[in-house]
Amino acid sequence: PGRFNLRIDGTTVAANVAGGASSGPQAATANVAHTVSETAGTGTSLANYSSTIGGDCAANGTVTLAPGQDKTCTITNVGRPQLTVRKILVHPDHNSLRLFNLQIDGVTVRANVNAGRSGPHSVSPGTHTVGETGGTGTSLGSFHTVIGGDCAADGTITLAAGESKTCTITNYDNYGGCPRLQECDEPGDGTEGCQRCTSANRN
């Protein structure tokens, strides 16, 4: 769970509090607008949350009190969805380094990888699309590609607030599957790899 620093007029009145906590009553000058806000506590990033201020406060966090008046403002934090892209490379070509750029909604979230994960990325609730482009020296035309995991086959996925999901992109290397110092003369259909390997003529 996240930790948050609760503030009034830019001064922290409760530090590193978890959900449901309160600052307790704080003295405030009457007939003057005050502003309630928060900053991230230890180990927390506000980018991973959508925040709404309410209660007796306006949406921008402002509130004015009359003499003797008590008011309570609330800050609600809802965890943003987290999406991870995982790369799998099947029967890679040992003679070539295959690299890929992993993308979410057309934006590269990890560049030039041949395996591993993008790490969790905060996204908005709703539908998103996972995909990839060829990295340095790599053409996607050399591969049969399958998207799966929590994603549909076309790379789309819908996440609700607070959800965490992982999509996989598996590339079957049509020219791979041969021992080192050999090369593929007859590539497979994208799922079987190379059908005939011969010794490479390398100077």
Q: What's this model, at a glance?
A:
By secondary structure, the protein is mainly beta. Helices cover 0% and strands 50% of the residues.
Molecular structure report:
The protein has strands at residues 4-8, 11-17, 33-40, 49-55, 62-64, 73-79, 82-90, 100-104, 107-113, 116-117, 121-122, 126-134, 143-149, 156-159, 164-173, 182-186, 196-199. The mean pLDDT is 93. β1 (4-8) and β2 (11-17) form a beta hairpin. Strands 7, 10, 11, 13 and 15 form a 5-stranded mixed beta sheet that branches. The protein has a 4-stranded antiparallel beta sheet with strand order 2-1-3-5, with no helix packed on it. A 4-stranded antiparallel beta sheet has the order 9-8-12-14, with no helix packed on it. It is rod-shaped and about 90 Å long. With 203 residues, it is an all-beta fold. The protein has no helices and 17 strands.
Please tag this protein with its features.
0% helix, mainly beta, four-stranded antiparallel sheet, 203 residues, five-stranded mixed sheet
